[in-house]
Amino acid sequence: MLGVCYYPEHWPEKQWQQDAQEMRELGLKYVRIGEFAWSKIEPKAGKYDFAWLDKAIATLAAEGLQVVMCTPTATPPKWLIDQYPDILPVDINTGVTRGFGSRRHYDFSSPNYFTQAMRISKVLAKRYGNHPSICGWQTDNEIACHDTTHSGSLAAKHAFQLWCQQQYGSINTLNQAWGNIFWSMEYQDFSQIELPILAVTETNPAHQLAYRRFSSDQVVHFHDEMIKIIRQYAPNRFVTHNFIPLVDTQTDNFALAKNLDFVSYDNYPLGRSDMFFKHMPAEQYKPYMRTGHPDFSSYSFDQSRGVSQGNFWVMEQQPGPVNWAHHNPRPEKGMVRLWSWQAFAHGADCVCYFRWRQVPFAQEQMHAGIKRNDNSKAAAWHEVSQMRDELTQVQLPLEQPVQAKVAIVTGAHSQWVTEIERQGDSYNHQRVEFAYYSALRQLGVAVDFISVDHDLSLYQLIVAPCLPVVSAEFVAKCQQATAHLVFGPRSGAKTPELSLVDNLGPGLLQQLIPIKVLSTETIRPDCSEVMTYQTQQFSSQCWREEIELGAGVTTVAQYHDLLPAVARYNNTSYIASLTCDEFLISYFSSLCAEQGINTITLPKDVRLVQRGQYAFVFNYAGKANSIPATLSGEFVLGSATLAPYDVAIIKLP
Amino acid sequence: MLGVCYYPEHWPEKQWQQDAQEMRELGLKYVRIGEFAWSKIEPKAGKYDFAWLDKAIATLAAEGLQVVMCTPTATPPKWLIDQYPDILPVDINTGVTRGFGSRRHYDFSSPNYFTQAMRISKVLAKRYGNHPSICGWQTDNEIACHDTTHSGSLAAKHAFQLWCQQQYGSINTLNQAWGNIFWSMEYQDFSQIELPILAVTETNPAHQLAYRRFSSDQVVHFHDEMIKIIRQYAPNRFVTHNFIPLVDTQTDNFALAKNLDFVSYDNYPLGRSDMFFKHMPAEQYKPYMRTGHPDFSSYSFDQSRGVSQGNFWVMEQQPGPVNWAHHNPRPEKGMVRLWSWQAFAHGADCVCYFRWRQVPFAQEQMHAGIKRNDNSKAAAWHEVSQMRDELTQVQLPLEQPVQAKVAIVTGAHSQWVTEIERQGDSYNHQRVEFAYYSALRQLGVAVDFISVDHDLSLYQLIVAPCLPVVSAEFVAKCQQATAHLVFGPRSGAKTPELSLVDNLGPGLLQQLIPIKVLSTETIRPDCSEVMTYQTQQFSSQCWREEIELGAGVTTVAQYHDLLPAVARYNNTSYIASLTCDEFLISYFSSLCAEQGINTITLPKDVRLVQRGQYAFVFNYAGKANSIPATLSGEFVLGSATLAPYDVAIIKLP
Amino acid sequence: MLGVCYYPEHWPEKQWQQDAQEMRELGLKYVRIGEFAWSKIEPKAGKYDFAWLDKAIATLAAEGLQVVMCTPTATPPKWLIDQYPDILPVDINTGVTRGFGSRRHYDFSSPNYFTQAMRISKVLAKRYGNHPSICGWQTDNEIACHDTTHSGSLAAKHAFQLWCQQQYGSINTLNQAWGNIFWSMEYQDFSQIELPILAVTETNPAHQLAYRRFSSDQVVHFHDEMIKIIRQYAPNRFVTHNFIPLVDTQTDNFALAKNLDFVSYDNYPLGRSDMFFKHMPAEQYKPYMRTGHPDFSSYSFDQSRGVSQGNFWVMEQQPGPVNWAHHNPRPEKGMVRLWSWQAFAHGADCVCYFRWRQVPFAQEQMHAGIKRNDNSKAAAWHEVSQMRDELTQVQLPLEQPVQAKVAIVTGAHSQWVTEIERQGDSYNHQRVEFAYYSALRQLGVAVDFISVDHDLSLYQLIVAPCLPVVSAEFVAKCQQATAHLVFGPRSGAKTPELSLVDNLGPGLLQQLIPIKVLSTETIRPDCSEVMTYQTQQFSSQCWREEIELGAGVTTVAQYHDLLPAVARYNNTSYIASLTCDEFLISYFSSLCAEQGINTITLPKDVRLVQRGQYAFVFNYAGKANSIPATLSGEFVLGSATLAPYDVAIIKLP
């Protein structure tokens, strides 16, 4: 299914009908509306104007379009801010209030905003909950975007004190848990607790972690309450939320998604690539500047599917240049189609494009749409149109993605711990995880992102690039697993309160592989060292642990000084260093072979994924590539020779 | 004419007479005084001390020197700040008040400061307005320096609200004009309007533009009122202001200059080059580190002449190393003379050196003077002395600069629009304009900087490196012009309220060249691509527009993918990309030939400009260079072989 | 002697006895305790708990260990902050209060904190002053760490106003001294004086210097008062303080040390190297990333000995990776021993390791100890154990270091002047001083760091890398000296109030060498130029002065333009530029030969120093090196071939 994001309030009413008709003709089925329209719906406190919205919905409905309605809580109007100035959040890096004038100017801990946000949600849900053309709801918009999960307000401080009281019961328990004896940081009462910001030097990591958990809980609570309201008044409609990249929510995404019907994702491969790969040298970056890295979109798709615990939507798909990255190239011709097919291949049920028409005014006027602001058809129109036609070539609805045999264990907690305690500036949680993911994808294997709570029995290879905190339950599950388990450096090294484990790293994982981390060092990124694996030289970078091997543990790879860098014990491997991608590919390839997981040698920049009966092949290269002959079946789309930026779909025998 | 900046209040009275005598002997005619002397003139509120100033003026006058008197409003004294603390401006990036202790610590929107600044101006103008030795006045000092045009104060907010009311009349008009419906940014009342600062994320570009226009208006209003006071009490004296580089005033410079008799400019080629070219690799930068780029001073001179609508002064000329850049080299021997002659050649009527004697104390003690602080003669003395002698070689006063056949269209509005909406980090308005200017200067052609209100009929080639907003009046004038018109990327793309034009870029310019900008992308600076022009390869960089050509439009240059990069229709060209300097030189050369504008092939680092009957040739190179034989005439100064950093003046036949 | 830093409050009481026993077995004699234990000692205002501390001391004493007790004033508890919120300091760069949650959250100008800090010091001193197992006291902890010398609080402003009044007597004297006439910065009353922070642009350098002197005086006053209290109640105990690198205290270290018995130093060669050399290219940095630069630790040791006016302690010696640098490598095997011996060789009386056991919680959990947090023995254990054994090979106590024949003149005033007035971004006081020091050390000569008040007659070569302010007394002493005197650029150029000297640089030093600094320029670091000395080419970098030579002055080295770069007159040399290390080595080598100072040609990365009858040789290289045959004597430790990271001790004949 295809859809689009639409803002009737930006356009004259007389335009709406033609828009709706063209949407239908373009094969779009879903139209998302309303997420920033609070001031139009309620121009003054308690004075509602629904006439325009009723009409807009009716106009769309008349063309058979289904509407996804949003709560408009990402943009409280000025009159509301003036009424309750404590809605505004406070910058945790400067202590300065973040003012009105853009979006997301609200504090998750403001009791006034909580009340008001739920009020407007209820008003909307009551009015439109049973509307026959409204198929589902989106909560708020891109929660946490612009670093809004954390606030340094008084409201946040008071809420944090309360949260601490609920978590720890007594102040001595908290002091003990955080290790406040260190540097005389002991509190005598919960009301003394500060936010871990603006201190003279680094605050207690346990304090920081608690603040992150608290902030995440605030977001989830706000969001869950909104879901509850929608469900109460809009029965039998789906509720979803459009996530930004999971690393950026600073929220426990599994918890945030829990009460949703499914997760939606806003996919902007070029803008995000510009920022994520900004330190990459031009010769490496330039080939992907108009495509994104071949594994970058699918990384988010697979994560979204994981958090969604099933299929997902792309709620916003970049249709052309955007306006918000450091540099904003246009997609290569064909890429909007490629990303769309890639989303479906990795488990999307629907791809909606953002936005129908480029808006001529305000902050996003340089953001492309399917149509240009003069109503002409932009480049994306033709690719969406091609999608409409090609979707008829496959049997819909698509079956579920094939059950992956490989899983990556992920979670906000791991991210927070390693962001709070980088230990070396060059340790970046997201880059570490992405490197592991990309290595697996280059081998052509499907990857699931799972939490520690997931069923491990489904997998033959389970990889935890970074899992500093492990529980006894998780270890017990690992012991039952038939998979080979791979743990990256730092795994098992920390308690849930961000202390060192008693028995040295990898802590409880010593039950899986009897090794001890004797010391840990971090290294300048430009001072990497040789690592040897099966007579080949790779590199050890940035993070390096010294490990002691227990009886029966074998050395898989060695540092330059011949100490063990990768160790293995039965079906568990421990990688004690950050390594180059080439090592990961090589080692995973060997483990897959051992575990009976099929890998495939793909041309550079070609990626393969299977969904149901179909194999999808994507060519991210600017030159033609041949699909390996081992991939046999009927070409539903394309042929064995992939043009640049082209897609092939093969119906498997 | 030559002059100097002098601070009698910094030196014992007994020194003054010798100073004045030496000034006269050095051939100086003008002495600027008083611009920071408020606390000396009015040590306590309402208690004036003019005795010292009277005597200083008399001492200078006794040697036949003419005094340029300043209003001392750039440095309100501490007692005044303590009396009216709201004088202090507020940093728009941090919200923190910018305190006393340096200079320019005042808010253009403070009603108290307005009153006080006009009061002291009136006091001075009344006392010295008819003094026979005071030939003219300088208002304030380097208005806007240190980013003081914009303030985040309450006073600024209230003044901005009033300004909005006056501009838009009704709040709905404002909402409409800014597109506030986007993100529910609608206001219900002018009193709700915030400054576009310290928000959660990017504020509305229209809001930002309004704030810049408002801030500029505040500066102009303050300045105009001061001019009015001076004119009232100081009849028949010129009034000028010493401008910093025009890009840095963040003010409509044409408006700021309008009521002045002429513009003055403070010329610091080395300090400014150190900052402007700081990202330039050493091998490119080092040859110019003690000279400045060959087009850098003249860029400011030509701009000053443009804003002045005629000749200008250099009020402060760097005489040696300064103290405020990241690195502060000394000028190569001869450069002070070269810059001085270059100023005259580009339309200066007077060059004043900053400062007479290096001051031993406070912020600028490392700033060179004509004399050292021990009263010995610094390097500049000998070059000024040479200027004094050489000025007798030419007929004074110099005639006007030759009427240029080439104009560059410039204006604060274009700068603001492209600073507010960079779209790519690598788009820099000033660098774009400088590149166009430098290309033209390397062809040896004279260049005028004009506003869109200028008479276009004077020119054969009119270049708008960046003109996002165009009016119907301007287009009509273009249609009448006999010049070839060249527009750089972004031209015509925006409405005056910083929205997209309805009919795609270049908007109204489509009446001159029927093309449409279909999409715009920005690119990392290290990812440039090939552009082909007349079988030669150049480069397309940073900014690239996709254009559709209407009937009759020809492709002048092509992108790597063969799409049009430069288009032409009759006498209008549109350059859709940021290109390398080499392309601009090549294309402008061809257009000049076509338009009958003489160009000349000059050795690298040699520049030529004509004023009246004289051709001036400047050698910025560290080696000797030959003047092209085609330049015939009588050598008033120098010869056909230019020594390093030397000047030649040729009286044309 | 060896010692250790221990935190009984971090561990269960039942652990203490074993810890104490192991300390004794490891050869440790001293145990430092208590410096962050305020909240444990006084959990509520006026409620003391000494039981645990009594027991901890008793447990240590029972094993024959001597305790160094600390005042816990670096970490005021939360209840105290809540009682007196004005204890918190204010960030001078942002104006924001620096909150509770880490350490050093106090303002040296807070009268409340002064009272409270002295109170708790007195309480402790009274209780433990005569304890037989407490041999000495440490004041506070790492005073000034985390940029806490300067505060922008109201308390600081008021104290500064008072300080100014005491310094200058009348406001006119202050105005005159600072040159406040410049930019109308004159004050009418001391109560008007602002801190030199958060102004529109650069504040008056004289104002800044006064503020630095004031801030230093505040620290010294606070510290001296604490010493006085300790001495009153703890007779016959030593009092010391653990200094951070002297450049970072922003305090007059000679004054701060004056009333101590000796100085202690906290030595973290790897963390500090990571930060100090962060701009060094990898190929230069990598060889030292696990050792530190060969001259880096000794630079601090020699400075500490200088400030101590005799021997010193290392109170905290890095035993493994730390947690606070940008990257935190482990020391190469052997380096903990090497650094320890190096400390002794340069004048340490005791080396204490930080810390006994890695703490599992809070901010420093990733900081290594002698033992790991699981109580196993970390790498350092074995090296300390080796130290214990090897110390028996030499005769204890070690004699004094040999009297150096070479001195470097240093002082906070020079640092402040050149930090306030960098003039070029690439001038860095510490790097300049380190370069001079390192050049001398590579020649194998011993170096003393002395203040201008020191006896100069002890030296044959006296080097002032940067001494902008000189007094007549100092010059008179220089005139008496038999040493050759070398002055780096900027020397003698400033008055004590940071103005230019009347007679041009080097000011009073013209009595030693009749030259004049005509102009000064600063240059981009990547634009260095050739400098010629004895037909060899070296480089002139970053800072370059033009000098005029008086009669009899000879040119030692020349710039690329043949102007003098280094000048000499009798026994005084003036280096007018920042040069490369190679020039310094070459020139110092020649001067040493002339002055009869023995130099020695050492292999790269090998260093030599003598203490009493012993010569110590250190190999910082990753390969074996031979000790020069000229070094004859009995090998007490090691042999003529030094293994990587090894030490040799030779008993001289």
Automatic annotation (TrEMBL), chains A, B, C:
Domain Beta-galactosidase C-terminal per the UniProt entry, residue ranges: 606-651
InterPro entries given in the database record: Beta_galactosidase_C, Beta_galactosidase_Trimer, Class_I_gatase-like, GH, Glyco_hydro_42, Glyco_hydro_42_N, Glyco_hydro_b
Signal peptide: none
Keywords, ordered alphabetically: Glycosidase, Hydrolase, Metal-binding, Zinc
Domain Glycoside hydrolase family 42 N-terminal: from-to ranges: 5-393
Family per record: Belongs to the glycosyl hydrolase 42 family.
Protein name, entry field: Beta-galactosidase
Organism this protein belongs to: Shewanella youngdeokensis
Lineage of source species: Bacteria, Pseudomonadati, Pseudomonadota, Gammaproteobacteria, Alteromonadales
